[in-house]
Amino acid sequence: MSGTDPKRPPEGERPLARRPWTLPSAIAREFDPSRAGRKARRTVRDWIADFTCFFTAVFIGMLGADAVGDNPHVSPGWAEFDQVLGALACAAVWLRRRWPVALALVMVPVAVASDTAGGAAAVALFTLAVHRPFRYVAWIGGVSVAVVPLTFWLRPDAAMPYGVAIAFGVLLTIAVIGWGMFVRSRRELLLSLRDRAVRAENEAALRAEQAQRLAREDIAREMHDVLAHRLTLLSVHAGALEFRPDAPREEIVRAAGVIRESSHEALQDLRQVIGVLRGGESDASGRPQPTLAALDTLIAESRDADMKVVLHNRVADPESVPTALGRTAYRIAQEGLTNARKHAPGAEVTVTVTGAPGEGLTLSVRNPAPPGPVPAVPGSGQGLIGLAERASLAGGRLGHEAGADGGFHLEAWLPWAP
Predict the structure, then answer these.
(1) Which sequence ranges are marked TM in the entry (predicted)?
(2) Whole-model pTM?
């Protein structure tokens, strides 16, 4: 056992402590060797901005040099020193991107000692306001404003009174800071708008992807409901031909006809689904979508497949049922008949449909226990789950239960707007 604290994270995983936002810490971060490799390469726009700032500092410095040369309060020796210091300050403007805080801080005493360095000091203060938070601008800008009286006390202006010169210097410093903060706020606004646009594009792409996924799920659900009914007919009649090869010719012909018809219908349904998956419309095959009015056709198909089906359709006008509601009811009845054919062959199935606008539509599929042995018919086991989801998406509910006598009851309620 070592003497380290088990609650203390390892040395390499300790979180970095937040440094204070004082000027020494900011300057130390600028001169941190680990940040040297993070400097981004200048773009064409950056070079244009740097040359503009440099020539601005040189132009203002030349005006300051002329003013110092003509100022009777400045000796010729100090004027030469002023110009040399200003030239160095203008050259230091190229460091404004890498060390903005340090450069602006150094330019405060340089601007006090040299009028020629005034342009470089203004560029450094502007750069600080653009690239650093307000807390650093408040420190250095406040110091720059505070030393304006000292500057004009050391070198009085030959053309302006002392008070007017101080006011002009203070207003100029505040204007430079305000301009830099305006540029910074505008950049942040543009970045925010750009991020918002990118986020909106990503959300739109995500919504489109989600819509495609929901569409694929609807297609898969529709494929299951349609093909399961057709393929179950194929399986039942093919099994009957397999286990009863000595059946009468009429029954064999009828079973073969059902197999042929079911195969053709399944192929048409599959082509329709493939057409949707390839980008076509849902009715690309030209076949109308089933509604509640097509329930009689479904019952007739089941009876042709030797099912005993009793239909009680108590809806006054099946044609008046909304298309989406009728299609959902049709698919539920289709799946219920498919399950009865697979799990209770030979049993009489009762389909009951009742409802009216404002009351909802109730559909019931009930069958007793099968009268004989049940052949093994493969199934996915997802039919009832898909029906429950379909009814839920339509705003209704679906329930099912196995009776004590071995029968099965499936019932669904769907909302029907008045």
Answers:
(1) 47-65, 77-95, 102-130, 136-154, 161-182
(2) 0.45
